[in-house]
Amino acid sequence: CFLHYQKKEHMTNSEKLILTSISYLGVKENPNGWDENIQRWIKASCQSLGIADPMDDSSFAWCACFISNMLIESQIWTPNTKHIVAARSFLKAFQPVTVPLLGDIVILERGPANGHIGIFINQTKTTYKLLSGNSGDSVSINDFQKSRTIGLRRI
Fold first, then answer.
1. SS3 13
2. How many CA atoms lie within 13 A of 65 on its CB side?
3. Exposure winner among 12, 16, 29, 106, fewest CB in 10 A?
4. Separation of alpha carbons 95 and 104, rounded Å
5. How far apart are CA 110 and CA 102, in angstroms?
6. Tens digits of per-residue pLDDT, 120-153?
7. Which candidate, 154, 150, 145, places its Cα nearest to that of 115?
8. Average model confidence (pLDDT) across the chain
């Protein structure tokens, strides 16, 4: 992968975000309690906003927490940045674009009020392939219908 051959300080923000995020591929909710990574992401997000931690990871839609934590871990955001914990709230962040590039943020609708967020990998005519948290209760790469898209953002 081209990302392994560059020094992190010479990478674009999108490259940093992908490199950081992909290292968590396969992290999955634990049906018997917390996964330590997911717990850390949710707790950090809740603490940054001064809200109570949920009882377990299965009761919290953590896709936006994952992205917020990856933005901090990849040093795009500073550690004291207030996290975004709702996917649709990312519509107010970063630069809107009409054509996604590798590493851009894709915000999807999930019903009339909810959403999902992921990192753009590639596309077909009808789908976006996204790296995201809380897709199938894990950090994974999946296809999502383009018709669900409500925003594209460049970091």
1. helix
2. 23
3. 12
4. 10
5. 23
6. 999 999 999 999 999 999 999 999 999 999 999 9
7. 150
8. 91
